[in-house]
Amino acid sequence: MYEDVFLITNNPMVRDFLTNLVYKFIIGNTIDVYKEARDMIRMNYCLLCHPLASSLKPNETPYRTVVLSTKPKSTLDLDSLMYIEKAIDISEKFLKIKPLSIEKFSEKLLNDFQVVDFSIIENAIKK
After folding, report:
1. Alpha helices in 6-106 (DSSP H)
2. In what side-by-side order are the strands of the sheet with 65-69?
3. Which one of 32, 39, 76, 117 is at 20 to 30 Å from 26 when CA atoms are compared?
């Protein structure tokens, strides 16, 4: 069911529980995840769902997972590139307004953020 899905994530829960999927784990923030996805899109991979697919703003959660195809296309997917570039721009804008300080979050809250991201991705890849 998920053989055409490649995940780029900084969410430990995605890494630990979706072990049957191909993924790249990023040690970094949301923008780092998006930039890695952009690099893959530039190598002709394409987005399979919108990178801002939740109501959580980029400065409200430290975790993000991006879903890409596992096989590159023969040409650059300009829509995917546009969406990921816009996600980077929006994230940078929100983080300038209100930086995200992960150190201020309790372990329980960090776990809750992981669950939210995990649920979004799990539901997206099932469809």
Report:
1. 12-17, 30-41, 78-97
2. 22-25, 5-9, 65-69
3. 76
